[in-house]
Amino acid sequence: MRHSDIEVCSIQRLCVHDGPGIRTTVFMKGCYLRCPWCCNPETIGDSIEYLYNEDKCLLAQGVKSSLCRDCEQVGGIRKKEECPFNAYKPVTHFYSKEELLDILLEDRSLYKESLGGVTFSGGEPFVQAERIAPLLKVLKKEDIHVAVETSCYCPHESLVILDGLVDLYIIDLKFQYGFIKSVSSDYDYLDDFHVNIEYLRRQDKKRIFRMVYIPEALDSDRRRQDILHKLMFLRVSLLQLLPYHNLAISKYKQLGKHMTSFSMPTMEKMLEFKEFLEKNGITCEILNV
């Protein structure tokens, strides 16, 4: 790995919910938060991690094989990450600017036809702002629309690094249970969040506000009023609402991480919250993604 390499967890093509048109979404490694409802736990933290698929592990299946005798899980010297059956899959892939650019340009014709482009998500893309800045400069020269999905809980300096290189900021609001601190730092980035939001507003940057609907966090009048107050304070006129899901449960298991369990919202409850917001002057869209 080179210092300038971009750390990526996955790349998804033909996406239609991460900005306008057809897009390629790059899920980047690293995040300043530890949201208990996170659906991309593999992006959290900066350590080297592996997804363990026990269905591919002969030891887990109770199969005796000479190929497994030297595995460290049975006292051998071969690291489990070197399993010949790929039971352990690395979470992070390292790309140079040129390597990642080649992948992103594969669907250039689709971007042009659908008015789409490339979205950087995560995790938190601004963790690697310095690394992706040269890549974004090339994408802009190629006239490709660039979106960034961010919580805006990041150092303001990181936001400034990509200034002029981002066409759309998809802001994932974290108002469900107040601010979620990083477990690895005492610094909470709350001041940076407000500075970043105000900066984007003053610069008249194109913004979309989103929030995950979690019943336990939004089904009481007190919590709804609190969130309404925060939305109005930030001058949010349109909020996209995404239903919480537990589809990441297998990833948590393969990472050996605990997954906090929340209820799946009903459409009735989401429509009720939508009506509540719109009665108070905030347009609300429900996204089924």
TrEMBL record:
<dbReference type="InterPro" id="IPR012839">
    <property type="entry name" value="Organic_radical_activase"/>
</dbReference>
<keyword id="KW-0479">Metal-binding</keyword>
<dbReference type="InterPro" id="IPR040074">
    <property type="entry name" value="BssD/PflA/YjjW"/>
</dbReference>
<keyword id="KW-0560">Oxidoreductase</keyword>
<dbReference type="InterPro" id="IPR001989">
    <property type="entry name" value="Radical_activat_CS"/>
</dbReference>
<dbReference type="GO" id="GO:0016491">
    <property type="term" value="F:oxidoreductase activity"/>
</dbReference>
<protein>
    <submittedName>
        <fullName>Glycyl-radical enzyme activating protein</fullName>
    </submittedName>
</protein>
<dbReference type="InterPro" id="IPR007197">
    <property type="entry name" value="rSAM"/>
</dbReference>
<dbReference type="InterPro" id="IPR013785">
    <property type="entry name" value="Aldolase_TIM"/>
</dbReference>
<keyword id="KW-0949">S-adenosyl-L-methionine</keyword>
<dbReference type="Pfam" id="PF13353">
    <property type="entry name" value="Fer4_12"/>
</dbReference>
<dbReference type="GO" id="GO:0046872">
    <property type="term" value="F:metal ion binding"/>
</dbReference>
<keyword id="KW-0004">4Fe-4S</keyword>
<dbReference type="InterPro" id="IPR058240">
    <property type="entry name" value="rSAM_sf"/>
</dbReference>
<dbReference type="InterPro" id="IPR034457">
    <property type="entry name" value="Organic_radical-activating"/>
</dbReference>
<keyword id="KW-0411">Iron-sulfur</keyword>
<feature type="domain" description="Radical SAM core">
    <location>
        <begin position="17"/>
        <end position="283"/>
    </location>
</feature>
<dbReference type="GO" id="GO:0051539">
    <property type="term" value="F:4 iron, 4 sulfur cluster binding"/>
</dbReference>
<comment type="similarity">
    <text>Belongs to the organic radical-activating enzymes family.</text>
</comment>
<keyword id="KW-0408">Iron</keyword>
